[in-house]
Amino acid sequence: MPASHRRKGRKRAVWIGLTLFSAFTNSLWIALCKPLADRVSPLRMMLLFRVILALLFLAPFLWLMRGLPTGMGFWIAIAAIGLLEAGDWVIMMYGFERDYLATYGMYETAPLFTLLLAWASLREHVGVMLLAGILAIVIGAYLFYRSSRFSGYGFVGAIVAAAVNVISKYAVDQVHPLVFLFLVMVWGGATLTFIYIFFEHPHVSAPEWGWETRRVLLPALTYGISTLAFFWALSLDTATRVTAVSRTSLIFGFLLAVFMLKEKSNWRIKLVGTALVVAGTIAVAR
After folding, report:
1. Structure confidence by residue, pLDDT tens digits, 171-189
2. Residue 194 within any structural domain of the chain
3. CB 3.0–4.6 Å: which of 75, 137, 164, 210 could bond 280 by disulfide?
4. d(C-alpha 232, C-alpha 60), whole Å
C-alpha cells in the first residue's frame, strides 16, 4: 500500500475516533447536568462552562498563540461563531420551554443544513452515499424525539448550528484547535454575559455562584473535552462528515439514559433510531 494511502487511512481513523469520542463525552456532560437542572438555569450553566474553560485553556492559548491569523476574515468568523452559538442556545431554550420533543426533533436536521451550507460555501463534495447516510442519520435522530408538531425554534436552531459548523471549519483550519476553542469560549462567554445581564438576570433568583461553580465543574470539563475533540476532528475532515458522525451522541445518550439515569421510556423505537444512525454513520464515514 502506498505511503499516501496509509497516511490517508490513519487520518480517517483519527477524525472518526475523535468524533465518536466527542459524541460520547457530549452525551456524558448532558447526563451529568440533568441532576442540576432544577438548581441552575441553562443560560447561567453555559455561561459558567465558558468562564471555566476560558480560564482552563488560557495557559495553552498563550503557549500556542504565536502566529495567530491577522486577516479580518478569521476574526470576523470567531466573532460570528460566538454570537451565533450563544444565540442558538437561547433559541433552543425558548423552544424547549414550549415543546421539548418538537424542538429537539427539528434541531436534529442540522446535518442536512450543514451539508447544504458546506457545499455552497466551502465547496465540499456531496456523493450519493454521503447524502444517503445523512438522511438515515436524520431520520434515526427524529425517531429519538418523535413529534407531529413543527417547531420554528428547532428549525431556526438547526440552521444556526449548521452555520456555526461551517464557519468553524473555515476558522479551525487556520489555527491549532486548542487556540480556536479558547477564542470561541471567550467570545461565546462575552455574548452570554450580555444576554444574562440584560434578559435573564432581573427575572431569576439570585445565583449561588460558589455552589453552582463547584457543581458544574465536572460537566464543564467534560463539555470542554467534547468540544475540543469535535474541533480537532473538524480540522481533519469536512464539516459535513464530522457533523453527521457526531450525531452518534444520540446513541451514547440513549445508553447513558438507560444504564446511568435508569430511564426506560420508548426504548424500542429508539433501538430503531439507533440502527438508522449506525447505518448512516457507516455510510458517511466510508
Report:
1. 999 999 999 999 999 998 8
2. yes
3. 137
4. 15
**Amino acid identity for residue 258 in this structure:** V
| Structural domain boundaries, residue 136 | 13-285
Please check whether residue 7 lies inside any domain of the structure: no
**What are 147's three cell numbers?**
413529534
Closest CA to 155 of 102, 85, 106: 106
Contacts of 286 (CB under 8 A, 6+ apart): 129, 133
Number of domains in the chain: 1
Q: Is the pLDDT of residue 206 over 70?
A: no
Q: Enter the C-alpha cell of residue 273.
A: 433510531
Contacts of 150 (CB under 8 A, 6+ apart): 102, 106
Alpha helices in the chain (DSSP H): 3-33, 42-56, 58-64, 72-98, 100-107, 110-121, 128-144, 152-172, 177-195, 209-234, 239-245, 249-259, 267-285
Which pLDDT does position 264 carry in this prediction?
62
Q: Rounded to the nearest 10 degrees, what angle do helices 72-98 and 177-195 cross at? A: 50
CA distance 209 to 216: 10
Cell readout for 111 is: 446535518
